[in-house]
């Protein structure tokens, strides 16, 4: 008989193990007890040549009589399980069809796998309701807390002052041992030790400890029953009408760190998010709305998945990926994992390392066009921590996060992507803080020297996990340009030290980044984002916009910072791609004609239509500076713009020449100023001059005045009579 190719251990091996266990239970004795490991292997290999494995095993262990007395259907089951060749051995499903189970199977309700949260199958398909619906509401004094999941109750128990370690110490399950007593009595050169029993903590202890809920119930005694069943269609859904409603309203205005430790506030947020997530994706817009307020830590993993638009058979997809076959990247992954957020007990545990390895390998194997770059482990860490017992969801979140915020960052040759990203970041620094930008450029402290780890890992390499959670809670609500604003906000927190120092001191400062106030960073990032015209952060290597048909109806996901969609469709008024060298030569960012029209609140005629709604409240004040000569300006200009001809705008010292509109320009310092011209080089130089003079929020109109001409928006002044 030709020998079969050895297969890795799998479900068929489990069927063999089941057969051995059933055999031992049937005959009442352990198999192979008198044989050492090599003898056992020799004996098992001889089973390949025998006709009846059961008889041979029974003869070897002197229990042939017992076997002969067994019912025929049990003998048949044993023979099926102990079939020597795996290819001929039945699967678990096939075994279940055996007649030995036919008598007992009707006694058990068939197992139906519950639909997972992100699957498209109907989760209420098997829901049965009583004929009289009022039966559901009979018990008025029901224990609402008891209806919540054990994870929720335990989390709230901890918030209310519960201490599991203290409880286990009191019950003497955790016992401290003096270090002197842990020393071995005898030690070999190779490190093998003798004379110490195994530590009790490494042994199974099935003692059950009941934790008292008195403290938690006392803490929640003022919470009304309606708090456990919020009405999702109600405008006040996030603050249920209870006796403590005023306290909750007050809690919502407290700092985030205090809200996260308030038991009653967290109870309300957890219940609300639990209900919204169970209605995902139909309640996707409401999840976005509530996430703007805050995300309860217990629900953060699932909420992030919803914000990232994770859907489908994520477990089946993850299970189908080969995470075992060795690949060239394995060595680098093994080196990186022991250095990634190892201050955390979960991620530093052996199980944490194994999960890290599997999720990272799954990502590398399933993205053959991309490669593993150092830093991918840091990017994986927040998702793995939040979904420690759900690797498939951690993988799905990471796979959705990277294309949105780090599109093509993990190409084998990613230099063009990163260079473009850093150039746009430099322009954002100049746009928001020209004084800091001028200083950093003068000393040669460019973003290439410090910002690559920031953006390649989305700040997970530079901040601890607890800060990343609060930062990403906001990041996931913004589009792919929001990280630029986070980067500028970090620089602004270090502004005074950066302005006072030279190149060497700045390098030292960033080699060990000082403490950053993450709440302030988030607040300032949102403010910077609101001041940034959406096309100013345009990158040709960003993720291409999704087809508009995908983002219709309830499935659209609008960021809360601005009124527009994250990926507006491209039109003739959108920004054009320019070579990287040209982009690097410009200090200030370009904005599209579409943005200019939108910001000026102009009405477009003809076939040009802007896809966004205009809301005056969110528009920053804007000044358009036309730098063409006065003759061209008179022939047609943007309504409300001022004319400062480039040829005579600046003195030899680089100062503004005093003219009729100089005072207007100075009065707009601090507002958005758009430079419009006909020659791209002149507009870039004019903008650079203003940045040198510490004018913030300077940008250039992409394509110049020629982009506006076809729209019919240029006005001609009335002739002077």
Automatic annotation (TrEMBL):
Q: Compositionally biased, Polar residues: which spans?
A: 548-561
The Protein kinase domain is annotated at 1-101
Region Disordered: which residues?
A: 539-578
The record's InterPro entries line, in alphabetical order, gives: Kinase-like_dom_sf (IPR011009), Prot_kinase_dom (IPR000719), Rab-GAP-TBC_dom (IPR000195), Rab-GAP_TBC_sf (IPR035969), Rhodanese-like_dom (IPR001763), Rhodanese-like_dom_sf (IPR036873)
Keywords on record:
GTPase activation
Q: Which PROSITE patterns match?
A: PROTEIN_KINASE_DOM, RHODANESE_3, TBC_RABGAP
In terms of superkingdom, the source organism counts as Eukaryota
Q: Name one GO molecular function term.
A: GTPase activator activity
Question: What's this protein's name?
Answer: TBC domain-containing protein kinase-like protein isoform X3
What is the native source organism of this protein? Panthera pardus
In the UniProt record, what gene is named as encoding this protein? TBCK
